[in-house]
Amino acid sequence: MATAYLIVLCYSLLKIKGAFIFYSEFLAEESQDKFWDFVEATQNIENDHDDTDQAYYDLILKRASVLLSPVQLNLLKFALSLRAYSSTVHSFQQIATNEPPPPGCKAFFNVHGQTSCDSERLKAMLDNALERPKPYLFKGDHKFRSANPDAPVVILYAELGTKEFSRFHQLMLSKANKGLITYVLRHFLSNPSKGKVLLSGYGVELAIKNQEYKAKDDTQVQGENDPVDEVQGFLFGKLKTNYPELKEQLKELRKHLIESTNEMAPLKVWQMQDLSFQTAARILGAPSVDALNVMRDLSQNFPTKARYSLQPGDSALFINGLHIDLDVQDIFSVFDMLRNEARVMEGLRSLLIDTPYIHDILKLNVQPSDSDYAVDIRSPAWINNLETDGRYASWPSNVQELLRPTFPGVIRQIRKNFHNLVMILDPTLENTAELISVAEMFYSNNIPLRIGVVFVVNDSDEVDGMQDAGVALLRAFNYIADDVDSQMAFDAIISMLNRVPSGGKLKVEHVVGVLEKRYPYVEISSILGPDSAYDNNRKGKAYYEQTGVGPLPVVLYNGMPLQREQLDPDELETVVMHKILETTSFFQRTVYLGELNSDHDVVDFIMNQPNVVPRINSRILSTSRNYLDLSATNNHFIDEYARFLFLDTKDKNAAVANSMNYMTKKDDGIIRPVTFWVVGDFDQPSGRQLLYDAIRHMKTSNNVRLGVINNPSENLSNEKSLIARAIWAAMQTQTANNAKNFITKMAKEETAQALYGGRDIADYDGLFAQGYFSVGMDVPLFKSAYESPNKGQRAVISNGRVKGEVFNQDDFLLLESIILKTSGERIKGKIQQLASDLVMKVDALLSSQPKGEARIDFLSISHHSAVKIRPKEEDVYFDVVAVVDPVTRDAQKLAPLLLVLKQLVNVNLRVFMNCQSKLSDLPLKSFYRYVLEPEISFMADSSFAPGPMAKFLDMPQSPLFTLNLNTPESWMIESVHTRYDLDNIYLEEVDSVVAAEYELEYLLLEGHCFDVTTGQPPRGLQFTLGTASDPVIVDTIVMANLGYFQLKANPGAWILRLRKGRSDDIYKIYSHDGTDSPAEADDLIVVLNTFKSKIIKVKVQKKPEMMNEELLSDGTHENDSGFWTSLTRGFTGASKPEEPKQEKDDVINIFSVASGHLYERFLRIMMLSVLKHTKTPVKFWFLKNYLSPIFKEFIPYMAEKYGFQYELVQYKWPRWLHQQTEKQRIIWGYKILFLDVLFPLAVDKFLFVDADQIVRTDLKELRDFDLEGAPYGYTPFCESRREMDGYRFWKSGYWASHLAGRKYHISALYVVDLKKFRKIAAGDRLRGQYQGLSQDPNSLSNLDQDLPNNMIHQVPIKSLPQEWLWCETWCDDASKQKAKTIDLCNNPQTKEPKLQAAVRIVAEWSDYDQEIKRIYNNFLEEKERGTTDSYQQTDRKHPGTCNIILQHNVYI
């Protein structure tokens, strides 16, 4: 009889003022220029609006509309609604709190570690600042453009828009502009509001529970009243107030309305078969404007709508062709993606590209591939040739052989040069012999590998083979290859190298010795001497230098250089075999697609792949680089110097592009897709050399045009800028051809020397005699590309990519070929209004985007069964394609997201129905709400509306529901306030509103850790996370599965370290990725400043003296208990926390899980039964994830009364481990899957006792039970109650054959030896097996029990004596007398409810129940009197961190 609705509210510490700060962060992501412009504009905004929330919000949007386009403005509204930047601002707040702020300061500054808010002190602090180390700056810091990168750093902590901020900001600005300081601004609120912020971007599921076994608590709950109480448009709250005399009749009407609309009649199987199609038909039948609302309503309330629409296929969402996986990506990453796409589309639009072509250009994949680059290998001396040598004649030569199936790991023998290994060697180096012997092993074993060698030897004509061993070996090889063949020559070389003594070098006599032995009649000097005819291939050195492949020796596989560490002879063999297998799949694909056939030359085909480059220069090939933003279009030029200075970076770049003149190979109008801007000081030899190399390259290529930018080393003067001004004048006044010839002369060193020696410029070109000195040219473009440009710095800007200065003519060729392959040609082919300038600008824009997946084109999809919503004409639009089965969980998530997208941005939307037929079961058994709003809403009085929330209205009365939250991966939430049992919501018994609040307790930091030496995860390694003043706030253990670890924290900057103790003694951190500290830093700094997932990678290495030590050896204890020590709550009443801890051997650790009020009631009774019988002190461990707020409130009180310790542990189910969707199965998973990481290493044994058990003995006996080397002990299922034989599933079928005579064990009670468990990696094995089996929905039906029983051969189980667990369902009555524990198993025959069974089976159960009730009532009385504070020990939170609440008023 309740109308149900559910609200999720989310407040942040920063209420309204925060909105300005959030907006500044939004702008900072656009560009630092916009951020500082905004900061300038909002210095004192407190007086610009009346005092309402809405006025403040409107002021923000008004200021924003000046700096943002309409699309960006909508995205800003969405970001504010999502509170996307509240975590960013909280992280700044935490950093400020750690400083800490000087007392009484509303804003303050830090100069190299000294803080103050007295501006008078700033000068004194700056004077000696450089004697102190510079402060650490984070990636998200706001750094003002500085004229002097070496100036002292001043960090200002202040709140935007306040008087204090304005005063300090002006001071800092004046100093920064003079180059006296580097100015950094961080947000800081001296008095943050205590309100909490409602979050959005998560789903709420109300799942229908299976009621086969009754598991409801009979304790009555006092309801909460709903003042509105709306059902089908009737406001019963008001009606009752206005017509109190009709109260009973209104109650009847309300009940009738609810029951008539939404009761759930069971469907027959024939009615279910086509449900999916019927649902799709209803959606498609609606007008397209309403179709999304219909889809949302049908999918989210599917269980009740199923009656009307008389069926799951796969679902997918694509935005602009990019795949959005809603299981992996949360709304915050979708928001980032929308912003990026908007930026590119608007950039293309501002380059005057028409809207229809924008999507064509977006689909171009212009990102350089991450693949390994390769060099051309068509010039070495080949030892063998698979296609022509006789020894391979029996192999098939048809490339189709690749598609013939073989066993995995078999290398196909085909007479084609698919696999080519080239060794570039210096014969005189020690390791040459080892590498050659590996090549010989490949050759002699008939591995299908073509082998080539390049000898890098002295190439001077004066040196011959009688003086130089390298030249001697090369000439000997050539002689034998000519005389016999390459194989024989190869064999001779091996003999020569084998003569070299260990540790020695190749000498001429080693070569001569072999030649004399094999060719006794030949004159040696005719082969090796000065007149030798065997000098071919002597140019190996030139080839080696031109390819730029790095220090010798080098091994190339199909042109790709192998890593240094792979050249170890043992390693090399494995690596090459692995490469052969890996590359085979590439060739299979090309053969299958018809790109490669038997007539083609395979080596030519390999050399035409996009990853093949003329040379390898890591500076050019690395994907990290700066870009110029060239997407602005304006009519400014750099000679309007006064105006140019006041343009922002983007417009300055455009003005430079407008002003640039180019040199080309020929004066013709063809499009040149590659533009080089050469930057340097052309009055210095290095600058002229760079320009000369660029011109020489440009003269060889028709794809290139060349522009010149002078970046003088010192201030300009006529004497010191002769060449630069001559070049500039030529570019401005001459035809391209004349300018090119003149500038080529100017770039030559002898010209410069002559000019500086007093020679007249007119001697070089008479044209310049007149107007030459009139042109000024100080171009500050370069400053906009680099944060801190050095005067005179050289660079090459290629289509907007800024590259550092190590360049020669070959590098220009490399740069050109890369641009042509990845982007230049593709863009040139797509753009209609073609111009070289446009190709350059589009390339700069597209290439600067983060590398994503390839985009998918949907033009080919059929247009049947689709909802279509057309975009507004002429505006930039997002192309959104959704494929969905309307009756799946995906549809429940997708529909609300599409509705918000449609309101947020201009969309071209197509939704395709992808239904599944022949359904035999209801496809959706849950109601669902996705909490998301496109913008903030307001009340009538202009104050903020309560915020985003989930509401479930008009729910059916009869089912039993359980509530689940579906949040982003990195959120750890807990239920903080509700009177109801959220595991068992039964609306027939609820008189009013079911309300629940959840709190976002922590953000998760995840990572993967590997040992660089072994490549394996270091099992048992521990990390701690904390701050400088409090180094251990949380800690964790690394799993062997993927080296995974997780830590929980709040927004802020944290330090990650190896835990003091064995971890820190044995290992050191070797490298890290994804963190916020520089690569060489000792401490890893990690900044959590977003709601998105943060995943880091850490590599560790054993210290040299610890190479033989193991972390999980038998004789070690970590003396600190602290696994997530922040969760320790109560201590025993007898001992005070500061007393030394009892020896852990004297504490029995008992672990249990429970969810729902009934099981928590059983759990308290189980604890009481343990405490009544066990003399040894007990410590209980509970899984925090599913406990109710009531239980968490009561447990400290109970611990105080009975004198036990307890700790709440929690672990987030890792994203890579197959997720369970049903709450009961998730809880079962936690019972078995994470035992090795849930507990600190100090706990070496624990007992698991099910919540519904009663203990009748001292558990010390079980704790001390000898497991005989097994990691855990379980009790087998009883066999004595014969009438249940029909239900003993383990007696037949799969289980009977798998167990092979062993017993099937019950998971209600077990004992785990954690030391042994960790040592044999039992947890990792269990997770591995689970991952394999759980993909099949029909396996592991009792997950916590089936998994260990299924693994009995890999992870042995010690069977406990039968009396340790008696349960009436399986054990006969006679054995009850000896029972040490009694378990209330479900009875599949009688289906008797738990409570009834407990009272009937266990005589003492009711007394325990009454005792707990008395204590609980005392607790409630004390709570009302306000005297329970001493028991409410909350989590140890770091001072100054925030707790954002996700208030989930589930009003049901």
From TrEMBL:
The keyword Transport does not apply. Residues 236-263 form a coiled coil. GO terms for cellular component: endoplasmic reticulum lumen. GO terms for biological process: ERAD pathway; protein N-linked glycosylation via asparagine. Residues 1-18 form the signal peptide. SUPFAM superfamilies: Nucleotide-diphospho-sugar transferases. Residues 1148-1414 form the Glucosyltransferase 24 catalytic domain. Residues 24-194, 261-308, 309-367, 379-620 form the UGGT thioredoxin-like domain. Keywords: Coiled coil, Endoplasmic reticulum, Glycoprotein, Glycosyltransferase, Signal, Transferase. One of its GO terms (molecular function) is unfolded protein binding. Residues 650-846 form the UDP-glucose:glycoprotein glucosyltransferase thioredoxin-like domain. Pathway: Protein modification; protein glycosylation. Its main location: endoplasmic reticulum. InterPro entries: Glyco_transf_24, Nucleotide-diphossugar_trans, UDP-g_GGtrans, UGGT_TRXL_1, UGGT_TRXL_2, UGGT_TRXL_3, UGGT_TRXL_4. Its cofactor is Ca(2+). Belongs to the glycosyltransferase 8 family. This is UDP-glucose ceramide glucosyltransferase-like 1. It comes from Cyprinus carpio carpio. The lineage of its organism: Eukaryota, Metazoa, Chordata, Craniata, Vertebrata.
